Structure formats: C-alpha cells, structure tokens
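Escalated from tier 1: zinc ion holo job.
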Amino acid sequence: MSFNNLDQLYRQVIMDPHKTPRNKGVLAGDTLSVEMKNPTCGDRIQLQLQVEGDSIRDVKFDAEGCSISTSSASTMTESIQEKTVDDEVKMSLLFSDMMLGKEIDTEVPELDDIEALQRVSKFPARIKCATLAWKAMEKGVHEE
Ligand code: ZN
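Tier 2 regenerated the structure:
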C-alpha cells in the first residue's frame, strides 16, 4: 500500500463529494433521528430519516469527521431516496460486503455510484469510516 494510492483515492473518490456533500442539513417534520459515532477515527453522523410505511421518503444528515465518512454519507443519502426500507437495508449489506472486499454482483445498477468507494476496502483502517452512515441508516429503520 503506497502513499500514492491513498493520495489518488482521496483525490478521485473522496474529495469531490466531500466538498459538496449532498443532502446535508436538517429535515422538517416528523423524522427518525439517529446518531452514530466511529470512535477509532472520531467521525460522528446525525442522520434524519422520513419513513412512510415501508418507504424512505427523505433523508438528511449532519456529520463531523474525516472526508471518507462524509463522502460515504453523501453517497448513501443519494442511494436512499424513494427506496423501500427492505431495498435500502439490502443495499447496505451489499455495501458492507464491498467494503470487506467480497465479490458482489456488480450488475446491480444502483451500485454504480458507490462502486468508487469500494477502493476504500484496500485501506482496512478506514472501512468503519465508510460504513458509518449505512450502519446509522440500518439502526434508524430498525427502530421504526
Ligand atoms: Zn473517519
């Protein structure tokens, strides 16, 4: 693992969404709120979900932490819009598998956007950064 590779990962995958994270902010109305932390890195995410029946209607997040955690949170909230809870939990499990470097079915169209983040799996210390937002989402929908 060379410094150059990590440097490239940051530039190509991480930095751009981090500069302009999507769905950052606060949701109005009735929402589920979940806070989750990744103590090994110091990341914190506050996730707000609007769940109606078995569908996720909207999501917003507020986060402090490293660029990988923020970038992944932004990507997760993009993938979540108008999905059913079941579908999003399945996506989260697939995402975890990707982060652990497992082979997954890359034909899944929704995964195109997050495939770039798979490169984080080469850096085991950062995997928890990448999965933090997804774990928060899973916790939120299971509390519903
Ligand atoms: Zn982190």
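The two ends are 41 Å apart (CA to CA).
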